Every structure is written in structure tokens, then in C-alpha cells.
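sry for the spam today, last one i promise. C-alpha cells for design, 244 residues
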């Protein structure tokens, strides 16, 4: 388990990600929080599952949210957990933030970790009063920066994808493009909170790149590979339930 200061930094990261859909953290700099499956099973019977956040501009976010909500729920139910959906957690957080007068430090312009935790504690308290779960899980689809070093393949968070142009990939090869730099990529994360707003677990699985060296992926081609979507959820969730 991470120390309190590190856990608070993760909490602030999750809060900030919800407020800004354009942030892109390099994969190696991600704050991931491990938890042993045995510990999770010992303390958890009922899970409150929030609606998936989609932190990328695209049409029809609703269908993407619905797909990933179902994938996450099915994963935990298959392992014997009771799952209760609690809707758009962000709306509750935004309302409480406004009632508190904001959480950003006027001197630094950065989120105040104490205020952020207070917001989450109050939001989680509302869920506890309604269904009394053991944990709350917030799934998110975020943009991360993937480093590529003189290769045609991007690899991150358990996923890999060829960055060659589509016409080249039609012939079944990957390796024409030799690229070095960073590329934006979609990744799926789950963050698990206890009812005191302590981050117990955070992990992610790679989904797909958003941009090749030759240009951006069309928005209507995002999330169209159902197997990749399922795999990303598994990569993120399975270490917590001991399925991998």
C-alpha cells in the first residue's frame, strides 16, 4: 500500500482527470496503486460501480460508457461480487465542489488535496447512505502519452498496436514505420475507493492509439474493436480479483 501522501496525490490525479479531458500523462509516470486480491476479497462483498468517465472528445459517448460499464460489471460479477450501479459520480462531485466554493488553491492554482478528499468523502457518504457498499469503483477512459523508440509498434499497459499506415497493415505486415517520440493513446483505468476516500487500487489497460505519425485516428474508428475493449478491462481489473 502506498503512503498517505502518495494516495492523496493519486486522489488529486483522479479528480483533475475528471475535470480536464485533454491531460496526457506519460505511461512511466502514472501513479498505479496495487492491492492483493486476497485483501480485496476479504474486505469486499458489495461494489458501488460509477458510470465510466470518457476523457476524450467524441460523438456518442453514451454508447461507449454503456459498453464499458457492462464489461466492468460482468467482470466483477463473474468473480462473485455484488455490483450496484450508482450512475454519474462526477455529477455528485461537481455539485459538492461548487457547494464548497471550489478545491483549487488560489495561490498555486493546483488542487488542494485536503479539499479534494473532503469532496470525495462527502460524495462517497451519499452513496453509503443509499446502498452501504464496501468500496466504490470509478472506471475511466483516459489519454496517456506512449513513448515509441525507433519502432513501428506502440506498447503500453499490456497492449500493443502497429503504427504503420492502414494501407500497409492490410498486407499483414508491421514494421515499415520507424518512429521515435510519444503518441497519445487511450487507456482504461479502474480506481477503487474505500468509503473514507482512500485510494485502495488503481490500474490500467491499454486500448488504442489516438494518433499515428501520419495523423489522428478518425473518431468514428475509436472503440470499434470489441476484443481490445474487453482485453483492456481485463488487464485493469484482473490483478485485483486474482484472475491473472
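last one done:
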Amino acid at each position: 500500500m502506498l503512503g498517505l501522501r502518495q494516495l492523496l496525490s493519486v486522489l488529486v490525479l483522479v479528480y483533475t482527470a475528471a475535470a480536464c479531458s485533454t491531460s496526457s500523462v506519460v505511461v512511466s509516470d502514472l501513479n498505479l496503486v496495487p492491492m492483493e486480491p486476497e485483501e480485496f476479497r476479504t474486505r469486499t462483498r458489495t461494489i458501488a460501480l460509477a458510470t465510466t468517465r470518457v476523457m476524450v472528445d467524441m460523438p456518442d459517448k453514451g454508447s461507449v460508457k454503456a459498453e464499458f460499464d457492462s464489461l466492468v460489471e460482468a467482470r466483477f460479477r463473474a468473480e462473485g461480487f455484488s455490483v450496484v450501479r450508482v450512475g454519474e459520480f462526477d455529477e455528485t462531485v461537481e455539485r459538492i465542489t461548487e457547494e464548497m466554493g471550489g478545491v483549487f488553491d488560489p495561490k498555486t492554482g493546483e488542487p488542494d488535496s485536503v479539499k479534494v478528499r473532503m469532496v470525495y468523502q462527502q460524495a462517497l457518504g451519499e452513496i453509503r447512505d443509499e446502498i452501504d457498499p464496501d468500496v466504490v469503483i470509478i472506471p475511466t477512459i483516459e489519454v496517456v502519452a506512449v513513448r515509441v523508440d525507433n519502432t513501428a509498434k506502440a506498447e503500453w499497459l499490456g497492449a500493443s498496436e502497429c503504427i504503420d499506415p492502414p494501407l500497409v497493415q492490410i498486407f499483414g505486415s508491421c514494421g515499415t514505420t520507424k518512429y521515435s517520440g510519444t503518441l497519445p493513446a487511450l487507456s482504461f483505468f479502474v480506481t477503487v475507493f474505500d468509503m473514507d476516500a482512500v485510494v485502495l487500487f488503481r490500474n490500467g489497460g491499454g486500448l488504442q492509439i489516438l494518433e499515428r505519425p501520419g495523423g489522428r485516428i478518425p473518431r468514428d474508428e475509436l472503440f470499434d474493436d470489441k476484443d481490445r475493449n474487453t482485453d483492456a478491462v481485463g488487464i485493469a481489473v484482473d490483478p485485483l480479483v486474482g484472475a491473472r
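The mean pLDDT is 85. ok im logging off now
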